[in-house]
Amino acid sequence: MKTKFLILFSIGLYYANNIYAQNPIVGAGLEVDPYHYEITRTGTYENGTVACAHPLASQVGVAVMKRGGNAFDAAIATQLALAVVYPGAGNIGGGGFMTARIASSSSNIMLDFREKAPSHASRDMYLDKDGNAVLEKSQNGHLSAGVPGTVAGLFKTLPYAKLSFKELIEPAIILAEKGFVLSEKEANGLNSDRANFIKYNTLKKIAFVKDTGIWHAGDTLVQPELAETLKRIQKDGAKGFYEGKTANYILEEMKRGGGIITLDDLKNYEAKERIPLSFQYRGYEVISTPPPSSGGLILAQVLRMIEPFPVADMGFHSTLSIHLIAEAERRSFADRAKFMGDPDFWKVPDSALISTKYLMQRMSDFNPDSATPSKLIDAGNIPVSEQTTHISIADKQGNMVAITTTLNNHFGSKTVAGHAGFILNDEMDDFSVKPGVPNMYGAIGGEANAIAPNKRMLSAMSPTLVLKNGNPFLVVGTPGGTTIPTSVIQSIVNVIDYKMSIEKAIAEPKFHLQWSPDILYVEKGFDTRILDSLRKMGYTIQERGGIGRTEIVEFKNGKLLSASDPRGDDSVAGY
Ligand code: GLY
């Protein structure tokens, strides 16, 4: 069944504003119409499907599959299209992770194209002379940018695809060059950062700041400089980004704004293939990200800590089931703060952290009647040595691709690489800038995630696959900073324990507890009597805005079911 929501912009306004309205470019290498599009929340398909944060990007992914591509082709084309039509998080100036299953060999791969600290970065680079953290610098502007990894990641994906990169990048080029119509949410997003764009850019003219005032739904966003950057990548491959004119634009921007990324940092950036982190949950195999993301380890810890309990019998969103999951999250996030960091720089005790013995011991002080204050929970005893975006894709061959990428917060550093037209990330804030000082997600860390030259900052991104009896079952992921594992865990529990449809599993409100701060965050929609009983157990509860924008594909009865998150403009496409 398809549920369609007409995008909220006025057709009249659209015709008045859109100079391309009479001249659609469908058929010019772009089988989508960037001036008329709708949001499709769910769908059932035979051959292939994409669920992501923007309808045009989902449609681009499906168009390349129809042309003979597979799920990997769709991943590359969709990510590039998102960099144009969803500039707040879709990106070529950020980084991410991809977890995927190759149908022909029934094998799983994991690509790490996380940004890394520039070679001139140093441990205390965000501290003032009195040793106080200056978070403005780690969260905005030139110094907050890590060396981007997305373009390297897409070229690392290419060997698994069938079409040429030249063909896969073409739709993004056209969308940037000819423009696309903004939805109300996108227009509002650009307007809310207008002052930041002006503050954190060295050039007066950037595509995201409208000369004549604020953006409205129905306006067309054209990005000619980004189109030229994408053309250089089309012509010269990854070198079209990490060397030559684009690299020079980045370096000139660094010079103008006091950033520290060098040409060697760009030329030496490498995406890495890592071994995916796999574990069993109630007989299903869950496959996700290893460090430098904390996502997979948190998924494994929380799901395996709750597995011995009868979660289904406890009842969906009952006091006890929320309490159980929140307490498991509390313990896992305490471990994150102490033990997790870039494995190339820090020995992460990953097997110990997810061993049954350790997790049983970790939950041994779980009290079903009351919350355990976070100050009483330390990291375990191990012998040690918001804005992001997710795409879920599958095809009928059984290829599964989960790809999560990020600029960190909305529009990243707010700094555009001048003349190159793309936003640089502010991923340096994902490091622990000073032990005990929370980052923008309130997460704290220490030595494991301290800044060092060329080190990758700890992530929570969790692009995840679930297999049932060894066969494809779910492709799942979400943005949301430290709430990423929360949304993925609760979506998986909703499907596996509570037998929900993927659409419902996504839409149900989520709750989040990350040890520090000791607050149980909840979305709107929880039963107030349940929240009262949790308060009586000792929880401090705070309502907050949306948690996650989850996209799921499910393999069911020979069909591909696709569902996108109603919290945004997220949309599915398929055929
Ligand atoms: N920037 C959010 C994350 O990587 O977890």
Report what the structure shows:
- 33% of the residues lie in helices and 17% in strands.
- The protein has 20 helices and 21 strands.
- The protein has 575 residues and is α+β, with helices and mostly antiparallel strands.
- Strands 3-20-19-15-14-11-10 form a 7-stranded antiparallel sheet.
- The chain has 2 domains: 7-272 and 389-449, no CATH class; 273-388 and 460-574, Gamma-glutamyltranspeptidase, small (S) subunit (Glutamine Phosphoribosylpyrophosphate, subunit 1, domain 1), CATH 3.60.20.
- The site of glycine has 9 residues, from strand 13.
Structural class: alpha+beta
Question: Nearest-angstrom radius of gyration?
Answer: 22 Å
If you average the pLDDT, what whole number results? 93
Strand content: 15-25%
Number of domains: 2
End-to-end distance, in Å? 13 Å
For the sheet with most strands, the description reads: 7 strands, antiparallel
The helicity comes to 25-40%
Heteromolecules bound: glycine
From the spread of the alpha carbons, the general shape counts as: globular
Query: Widest sheet: strand order?
Result: 3-20-19-15-14-11-10
